[in-house]
Design a protein that fits this description.
Four copies of one chain form a homotetramer. By secondary structure, chain A is α/β, with parallel strands linked by helices. Helix content of chain A is 33%, strand content 21%. The first copy, chain A, has an eight-stranded parallel barrel, surrounded by eight helices. The longest helix of chain A has 14 residues. At the A-C interface, α6 and α7 of A face α6 and α7 of C.
């Protein structure tokens, strides 16, 4: 990882815009990657690249510079060090994600299968208090011979559901070819677990100008998740939601092992909001409600959960979907645990 | 696993003691293992052994027999099928563990290092509302050249702490040679993760007449945990507390991966209470409080947590121990999540 | 996985081309995916799609049809059932891979760093008896701030190395945008472990008309590897080389755990050749030679190994690269084990 | 792990016995654990305990002392540093295990089920060239309701098989209560994977005066295996055979994942011989032969393999046992790979 050292230049509270611009200009002469991160009290400037060149710039002596701090972790832009430990909040159609006083409840069908099914679930989760609507238009499938989603028509159905309910849309980007269509319809662009290290796709997602919900790969470490987030962040997109969705272990009683320890770990080491997906990890509806409560209690900034009108008939992942008719009770139960941590549903 | 099939004979609500005894006597003629499990409405009789012999007994026709149900799971006595889905409650010095309306808060030092240290922590956790006191007298150590605990003198210190605080004692049995000493002083006998499949030790523990807290092996499946519980249960000891303490996975950011999904899974598949140990899994104090809240929210019957007066000076596992001075606040936070599930601290 | 059942139509040895064409035509009326696989004695026709429609076709009664066999495994085209247990051989510039009597020795630098370095290593591995030259032009990197390869100029250097040595080139396709450039210069297109489930990329690779070396994802099961191969095979590209390169486990003494059991398992369950990459799994040069011998002994069809002129100076993965000066001795040692299984180096 | 530092005192080639004894006496004044390890050229003296006390002894100045080397690894006695990189050889009834020029072929039934079965397999593996006979008298079983072996009568059958064939016996010690019986009949005492961290049992095994074959726990790291070996070695028993038998990973296509990388790693980091058990890892007879060849090729000092006269009728692990009638061909195939490394079957 030569050439990947990083420094954070912390400005004084009194530093002027011109002084900040001067530091940035000096850094940019060396070809390093520069990111300005304004905070409440001070501005920090992240610079990632050749460490020798940066050290030769003599930044410490520039006007308005408080100190220059090396960053030692393998992830840079996602590090809580870079954000000087202030959590990032992401705004999605007026709803705030992250920041410590809101809890984001994303719910909806695994896959958009029809207009009727999608609108019915959307109305149910809206009535139950959801913050956003999830739904897959393009589905990654392990076998090429499985149902892959409706594609663009599904995006149009989701747009109709948003119009009907006011809920912003979360949907997965699977292939760079679909980027424009996704950008047109999605409020949050999801990157699935299988694509967490599809770096070409991460860069495409980073450029769409939409918040990105980045799922942890099923055997990715939390360090690797933050480095993947760096791929999005370096495109200038600071609105990344990290998502824990279960890791692959020797235990097969559950589909994956939901790593809830990762949530407080990520909150300690990154400034980004953390969402939990209990549905894919459990693979069994009866475990989804307790794990959702646990996600709220452990300090997650939200959950993303599958809900179906008729799970038995779903083309994909039916056994793990909550019944739409039970959603309001479920949501109230989860919200009660979030409320103990001072959070209201966004 | 030849010869390991099981049946459960469910008696009618009206069945008399004599009718129950007649079924047991009939079963015992075949050399199968028999366990009588009285419930609120009916009695169930578990029989494990040669399935052909059992089927030849014609049990269905005996007076008082409602039905004979084969049990298909690899674990038998720990199965919720055998308990006809009524949860087992375990009484420890007047405190009830399991059953759905109590939450058990076991706290104390990793290891008994001195009388002063142990009594100080015991008073602190008592004041903070703990249900029981934990403390290691004999410690399993990966290297033979590490501190192994004070041994029998530690048991005497724990007895003194019980006398001072009224808290029952949970301590680990590591070697059959120490069984008598442990039985004399412990209220709950802990079997550690490394010994979950030390079957000789499980049988010794099962015979001590004390509740057994059985920790899941660090790479044991939940099926294997329940089969290990069977080793204790078959000694006639029905007071087994299952304990999730983290499994070994590829992720090294935390010491182990706390498998909170296992808690609702175990509640579905077994009648035994489930305790969570967040300290060993996290290996980092800052993660222990959020994981404890999550354990309460996910439906555990209790937690077992390490607390130290001066963690920096502890001989063993200091970085994961809570500060004794913070315990009351911590306990109140966890209890609030348990209260949402209708549980008060035992 | 609705609609993903498969059948294999086995023709009689006497079946004519016209009879085969008639079966294909009948199958294609239903919209199922059809693949004709000629064998030495008989032709088999794979059909994957809606099982009800296929069963309504009455294929059993058609002229030249011997029998119709359902395929039950989740992978279809990669299954040894489909190939009626005849191994597939892949021809690469006159070298045969697979088939049981050759062993393929692919060697070269991790990454093309310069013309001089690449030509020097290419000459060394050619002199040592290598079958093909490997070298990365585009490198996937966990952090966006690490060296990512020289790109297209690296492909031109590789082409020059081929011209100089006659060795065919194996190089990785990382992004669909580079597909044309890769297709122009590569003899074998490598799909890396991180992209094993990047289905869009698999389809692109399948269409390039070149053999594809498909690396197993670091936490992918062998079933999933075969389903990923199906993505390439269904494009009509039958030249897929499976590659075991180590899986992620709890063990950190080695970088990954090389799963050599997967080699005979894959040979039993698939018709495709299996290559082993011992370099990335070991992460330590001293383990690469014993693991290479083991790969030959366990029945692999070849290995792909990293070799460097000056590993200490390599920009990427130096500690795992063999010294170029030791390559001939190494290759002879590996070939001796392959020879015991009746294989000569291709 | 306070107080667990270690030093190795390397004596000069000319050091006398009296000088060695003087160093030992000086070390013993501090209460550290001392182990004298004579080598071909020099003697090394391992001392494990309080590092400050050892450093105060001024050992460097004593007559005959060449140098004092700190040992930094968590395992001490098993470390190749302690043995100054000379491999340990273990003698079993005239057969040498370890040392680089022999290969040890241990074969026999999983479990002793009857006299006839055991004698028949013993004769077959003797005829096929085995070095030792394996067979279980006491079997660890995951469920308490499974067949647990014949116990002491099985030991007597094994003794009869030894008398008939001359093959030394390898059998498992499961419970300290059986130690005397095992010591009476076994030539090599096996500690099973489930008991690798049953420290009380390791100490009992270490005192029996017999070589110990120590199986790696199914989720134990190689570091932990060497620390477990330390428990045996510190009893003064230097005859420990390490055994890789497969680790638990996410992959379920094979029963366990045989970690053949561990073999060269252990040879680099320890002086102890390394044996491979391919049967339990594979769980499928068809994989056992290729994995055995790979074990020989990767540099193991031997293998331990299950053989049955009639695997279909075996009470335990039949599907993984080789057919006795195929053993001679199998053994010759494995021996050919060992011969390439300069080893003949012991």
């Amino acid at each position: 990882m030569r050439g990947s050292a990083a420094v954070m230049v912390v400005m004084t509270p009194q530093a002027s815009e011109a002084e900040i611009a001067a530091v940035v200009a000096r850094l940019e002469t060396t070809g390093v990657h520069v990111l300005v991160m304004p905070g409440e009290l001070t501005t920090a400037i992240g610079a990632i690249g050749d460490p020798e060149r940066v050290s030769e710039l003599g930044l410490e002596g520039l006007a308005g510079v408080d100190r220059v701090v090396p960053i030692s972790r393998p992830y840079k832009l996602a590090s809580s060090e870079l954000a000087h430990h202030e959590p990032t909040t992401v705004a999605v159609a007026g709803r705030q994600v992250g920041g410590g006083d809101t809890f984001c409840l994303i719910a909806g069908p695994c896959t958009v299968e029809s207009r009727e099914q999608t609108l019915a679930v959307a109305e149910a989760v809206k009535a139950g208090g959801a913050s956003m609507l999830r739904g897959g238009a393009f589905k990654p499938r392990t076998s090429p011979f499985a149902f892959k989603g409706l594609g663009v028509p599904a995006l149009e159905i989701l747009a109709e559901a948003r119009a009907a309910t006011g809920l912003p849309i979360v949907t997965e980007l699977l292939d760079a070819q679909h980027a424009d269509a996704i950008a047109q319809h999605a409020d949050v662009v999801q990157i699935g677990a299988r694509n967490m290290q599809n770096y070409a796709l991460l860069e495409v997602a980073g450029k769409l100008g939409k918040p990105v919900l980045l799922k942890r790969g099923l055997s990715s470490t939390v360090d690797e998740l933050l480095m993947a987030a760096d791929y999005v962040l370096k495109e200038g997109n600071e609105a990344v939601l990290l998502c824990e969705r279960g890791i692959r272990t020797f235990e097969t009683a559950t589909r994956f092992t939901l790593d809830l320890s990762a949530v407080p770990w990520l909150k300690l080491h990154s400034h980004l909001p953390v969402i939990v997906d209990p549905s894919h990890a459990a693979g069994d509806r009866r475990l989804v409600e307790p794990l959702s409560r646990a996600a709220a209690a452990v300090g997650a900034d939200g959950i993303i959960v599958e809900v179906a009108q008729d799970p038995e008939a779903a083309l994909c992942d039916g056994p793990q979907a909550l019944y739409a008719r039970d959603f309001a009770t479920y949501a109230a139960g989860v919200a009660a645990h979030a409320a103990l941590l001072g959070k209201r549903v966004a």
